Structures are given as structure tokens and as C-alpha cells.
Amino acid sequence: HVLSFQETRVVQNDWTISWRNRFLQLTEANRRLAVVKKPVLVCEHLDGTIHLWFQKRELAWVELTKRPPKPKRQAPAKKADGKPHKPPADHPWRRPINTAKPKP
Q: Which residues on neighbouring strands pair with residue 6, listed in sequence order?
């Protein structure tokens, strides 16, 4: 490990790490470790081999050919008629706030 380029990277929610315009995907063998949003040490040796380390454990990985797609956000659910939900008049949020001071 002495003669290698070493940097710390953070594992994304999709179990990928970005390293020098490359995307490294952690394999299923690492699923028992909780590495999402945790720092991982990336070591690139002079011969070009890459090793990923998390808490003194080497992680298995594969290189992706392209950037993984971002998940699409779902729009909030609407009522069947397409109108947003309006709470009734007696809803707790619509009640006036009691600003009177408590009596001693």
C-alpha cells in the first residue's frame, strides 16, 4: 500500500463510488456491511489495479460502463377528481391558537 494513490470516497445510496471518471459498483458480497454514506479508501497501485477498503476489509466491486440512472421522484398522490385535499373546518390545524396566559 505504500506505493499507491489513495483517496477517501463516500459510498452513494446505489452502492457506487466515483473514482477518476469511473463508476465502481460494490457487489452483493458486501451487502451485510453498512457502507452507504460511509467513507471508503480507494487504493490505485502503480500497475493500475484498484482496491477498495472499508474498516480494514477489502470490498469486492465491478466497474460500470456508464453512470447509473438517478431514481425518478414520484409525485404526491392526488385525489381521484384531481383537486388537492382541503382539511375540514374543524380540523385541529384550523382551530385558533390559544394565546391567553394561564392563570397562576
A: 43
3-state secondary structure of 40: strand
Q: Kindly state the percentage of the chain with pLDDT values over 90.
A: 43
pLDDT of residue 102: 65
Closest-CA residue to 24 (of 39, 9, 38): 9
CA distance 30 to 87: 47
For residue 48, give Cα distances in angstroms to 22, 24, 39, 43: 13, 14, 22, 10
pLDDT digits (tens, 9 = 90+) for 68-81: 787 777 776 666 77
Angstrom distances, CA of residue 91 to CA of 4, 16, 36, 39: 64, 45, 40, 46
DSSP 8-state assignment for residue 68: P
What number of other Cβ atoms are within 10 A of residue 52's Cβ? 21
Q: Which three cell numbers stand for residue 73?
A: 421522484
